[in-house]
Amino acid sequence: MARKKVNLQWISNDSTRRATYKRCSESLEKKASELTTLCGIKLCVVVYGQGEAQPKVWPSNEEAKDLLMKFNRRLDVSSLKKTKNQEEFLQSRSLKLHEQHETLDLLHDSMVGGRPGFIGTDKGELLSLKDMVDMKMRKIEARLQQLAVGEEVLPQPLPQDSYNLGACSRLPSAK
């Protein structure tokens, strides 16, 4: 039997609200119990009810405290410090792309003779150039490997003499 759509809004009648809270919290505990049994996971449920001095805790206070302590120990606060918001990420990405563009310009200048022997190039630019060349070489090697694996073995070309019809012994000779 299909359930009717539940209208999610504040229940103004106190007794109806308390009855709904009790029914939903028991249902939540049952679902948590089913989830732990079926999936073999550990979880706890803490529900703060209106007007209650202590929260309702499932499965027990001790198990919930142990689980929450374990969760807090696993939470690495130092990793949160390394996270970036969207603006910081885009700024660092833009800076990196700008540096790569400058390195490409340096590489192009050196290839066309604009900087013979890398005259006027500082150590940072040379290291950046080295990294870019290494990256491009790895891409080339990977592409060559990909082509070599995907390529079928082709028959060897015939020696040059075999193109001469007189040299072929299988052909009947013209008399």
UniProtKB/TrEMBL annotation:
Residues 1-50 form the MADS-box domain. CDD domains: MADS_SRF_like. This is MADS-box domain-containing protein. The keyword Transcription regulation applies. It holds the Pfam family SRF-TF. GO terms for biological process: positive regulation of transcription by RNA polymerase II; regulation of transcription by RNA polymerase II. It comes from Sorghum bicolor (Sorghum). It is found in: Nucleus. GO terms for cellular component: nucleus. PROSITE patterns: MADS_BOX_2. InterPro entries: SRF-like_MADS-box, TF_MADSbox, TF_MADSbox_sf. Its main location: nucleus. GO terms for molecular function: DNA-binding transcription factor activity, RNA polymerase II-specific; protein dimerization activity; RNA polymerase II cis-regulatory region sequence-specific DNA binding. Keywords: DNA-binding, Nucleus, Transcription, Transcription regulation.
